[in-house]
Amino acid sequence: MRKFIYTISVFLCIYSLSAQEENTSFTLEAAITYALEYNYTAINSNREILDAQKQKWEVIATGLPQIDGNINYQNRLKQPVTPLPAEVVGGDPGTFIPVVFTPPQAASATATLKQQIFDGSYIVGVQATNAFLRFSQNNKEKTDQDVTKMVVEAYGNVLLAQETAKIAQKNKQTLEKNLFETERLYENGLGDEESVEQLKITLASIDNVLKNALRFEEITLQMLNLVMGLPVENQTQLEENLDDLVIKQIDYGLLDTNFVMENNVDYKLIFNLNEQRYYELKLAKSKALPTLNAYVNYGTNSFSDQFDFFGSGQEWFQASTLGFDLNIPIFSSLNRSASTQRAKIAYEQAKTQLTETEQKLRLQLERARSDYLFAIETYETNKDNLDLAERIEKKNQTKYLEGLATSFELRQAQTQLYTAQGDFLQSMVDVINRKIELETILNN
Fold first, then answer.
1. Is there a domain that residue 397 lies in?
2. Domain annotation covers residue 196
3. Is 17 exposed, middle or buried (0-12, 13-18, 19+ CB in 10 A)?
4. The pLDDT value given to residue 11
């Protein structure tokens, strides 16, 4: 039986490990959705909202009825003695006799109900908790935007590395073929050594590019896993390719989207700061108002020479009190006035920050629109340049094999092609990244 249980445990352990290492395939949208749920920062952001809700109730509860209980037991090991005039019991006038008034042991139990009736700071505090909850929700929205942007950038970087590796591999194969043919020509006395050396230099450079692209692909994939909340070693698969993804990201209509300032998350957060400063000012002013609290308590106590308070014949004495506590601030040596003035200054500063943020966002919007449009235009230009560079390189390949072009001219055409390929790939990623920046500002 033990052997059977051990076998099952090992099987479950192996199955668990294999499940964790299972390949996961994502489109860009699926990767974003997954990250918004499992990204480490997003998880903590959700917890911050829960914490804000608990803080709100914590403040509200201070103004609701509070009940406290108290149990007290005393054993006077050395009882206090009170001098009593002796003449009270028939003694000589002017003399005193020691008297012990209470038994050595005493016990009491008291319950007190307190209720806040009026406190200006409590009212302001409850209002401020609502503002803080809105701040937490807006901060969660900001976190989601940041996570989305990081996923888009990481996803695009993985595709960029993959495409770079594919192109570098293709270029390497072409160069290896050219080098083989050139070496055969040189061996047969129909070529020159410089042509062989030129191709070897170019091949070595492309080989380095290929190795770096493969390493970069692994690193970017680990970064994507980290952003999504997956183990970094997870073999994540990407369902989209760079060409199709870029086409999806080209949206000229986005450039004409109306900008609603109040929808921007950065604006919301600065507005929340203004709310906070406003309630801080109200709180400072409320400290000049009186506070009124009510309380009622009920208690019982008993005395004895021995610890027999729970005996059936033990007598307990009841007591109860109802009262009000009114506190009226009168003079604070201008302390409250200074506090109020400081809160007012902070509120005015926050309003200035809000105005500054509005202007900055308008400028950021125009820049984001310009950058997005420029990225699209650069992509289209680089696409045409790549086609042209491929044709030029192909013509030089033919001329070189026919002896009509030198190895230097071929290498120059190849270098131009490699540059065009790199520029084109980078322009594709730029379109993706510039779009998410514009969408972030628009909160689209």
1. yes
2. yes
3. exposed
4. 41
Judge whether 232 lies within some domain. yes
Q: Tell me: pLDDT of 280 over 50.
A: yes
Nearest-angstrom CA–CA distance, 137 and 140 = 5
Contact predicate 434/379, CB 8 Å: no
What is the reported pLDDT for 14? Answer: 41
pLDDT of residue 178: 82
Cβ burial, residue 86 (10 Å; 0-12/13-18/19+): middle
Tokens 């072009």 belong to 405
pLDDT tens per residue across span 292-309 = 999 999 999 988 888 888
Instruction: List phi, psi (to 5°) of 230.
Output: -95, 160
Q: Quote the pLDDT of residue 133.
A: 93
Residues spanned by the domain of 111: 67-117+291-328
Provide the greatest CA pair distance for the chain. 148
Instruction: Check residue 232 and give its pLDDT.
Output: 93
- Does 73 share its domain with 163? no
pTM of the predicted protein model: 0.81
Cα(436)–Cα(86) distance, rounded to whole angstroms?
A: 97
Intra-chain end-to-end CA distance of the chain, in Å: 61
Burial 185-214 (b: 16+ CB within 10 A, else e): beeeeebeeebbebbeebbebbeebbeebe
Verify that 165 and 285 share a domain, yes or no. yes
Read off the pLDDT band of 23 (50, 70, 90): low
The tokens describing 172, both together, are 């390497």
Shared-domain flag, residues 40 and 79:
no
Is it the case that residue 361 has pLDDT exceeding 60?
yes
Mean pLDDT (whole number) for 193-197:
80
The b/e string for 48-78 (b: 16+ C-beta within 10 A; e otherwise) is eeeebeeebeebeeebeeeeeeeeeeeeeee
User: Residue 287 — φ and ψ, nearest 5°?
Assistant: -70, -10
